[in-house]
Amino acid sequence: MEDYNALSLDFFAEFPRALHALDRNPNVSVVVLSGAGNHFCGGLDLKSLAAFINDSSGDHGRIGERLRRQIKFMQDAITAIERCRKPVIAAIHGECRGTGVGIVTACDVRYCTKDSFFSVKEVGVAIAADMGTLQRLPGIVGFGNAMELSKGGFRVRRPSNWVWFLWFSGQGRNLTKVFAPLQRVRIGRKPPLAVVGTKAVLIRSRDLNLEQGLEYVATWNSSMLLSDDLTRAISAQKHVRKPTYAKL
């Protein structure tokens, strides 16, 4: 049986390192996450998790404390998507299950093929989804939809009310070969400081009230507007030409 790109525990150490390298690479303007094969992600490799628990020794309290640290470590690996300054696009095809849903909800944009389907499978294996799905999904698809999907653990195919999952008419890997690269180029042509700032302000504003959010973006722009990007953008519009910007 295919593992559908199931995530081993090693993934949670390697993934944030890769994101950090891309974040620091001045030649990278956008990051696209996709899955090899017929499916985007089959969720967490439960064999790895079971092995971790079985290898733990000591009393229940100490085993539980070690497990909590491991969960926090894994959560932090997915939150690395939000910490990455560059926009992160999820290019989803086939199945997106369990922790895979947690990953795509942390991404900035989600593009899906028409054959994509989603399932929050954790509840079926006696786990409350703990990789960010329960925290991020309600803000994307609405509380009621998130509650239904998370408690039921069933598959959902192209739900029309998931307005922030952007659907692509093609199938399978066509998304990562054609559509996602076009979006990467489109975003990559924008002023890099403005793109980075937009992501940073949006993520920070989730935890702020309106007044605090406005204060945060005012402080951000008071320094970022001093860059050459604004002058270049205005000049390009004036002379009807494509602007060029310094790498970040």
TrEMBL record:
Pfam families: ECH_1
Family membership noted in the UniProt record: Belongs to the enoyl-CoA hydratase/isomerase family.
Higher taxonomy: Eukaryota, Viridiplantae, Streptophyta, Embryophyta, Tracheophyta
UniProt-recorded Gene Ontology molecular function terms: delta(3,5)-delta(2,4)-dienoyl-CoA isomerase activity
Species in which this protein is naturally found: Hibiscus syriacus (Rose of Sharon)
GO cellular component, one term: peroxisome
Keyword tags: Fatty acid metabolism, Isomerase, Lipid metabolism
CDD domains: crotonase-like (cd06558)
Name listed for the protein in its UniProt record: NAC domain-containing protein 29 isoform 1
Pathway(s) this gene product operates in, as recorded in its UniProt entry: Lipid metabolism; fatty acid beta-oxidation
KW Transmembrane (keyword) present: no
Biological-process GO terms, alphabetical: fatty acid beta-oxidation
